[in-house]
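Recall that a protein's primary structure is simply its ordered list of amino acids. Everything else, from secondary elements to tertiary packing, is in principle encoded there. The following example makes that idea concrete.
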Amino acid sequence: MPDLERAVSEIDRSPAFQIASFDARCAIELAEVVRKAFDKGDKKSGSKAGWNEVKYDRQIAMIAKVYGAEALYTDDRNQSTFAEEIGLKVLHTWDLELPSDYAQASLDLGKQE
């Protein structure tokens, strides 16, 4: 079982992370986006995900936008689409460089005939 207190403490001390909540400003900005989607007749903006997933994905992306994140790291297709629609830069794990210590070494398979 992970040590959750230790994990939260590490995140709190790191300059790379900021814990942010879905506050009133986030809610107001997201409400405007959702209103526009309803006005277009598709509250999920084309997403095939369930409504609860769409709502959570949008909340996460809006928190990132409101708090000025430089990028949103996600491999979730629906979340990526929404984040890009609201102007966030999206990075996926496959976009990240793999440190050479973790890269697969070349295999010497000998001469192939």
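The chain has a mean pLDDT of 90. The longest helix spans residues 24-39.
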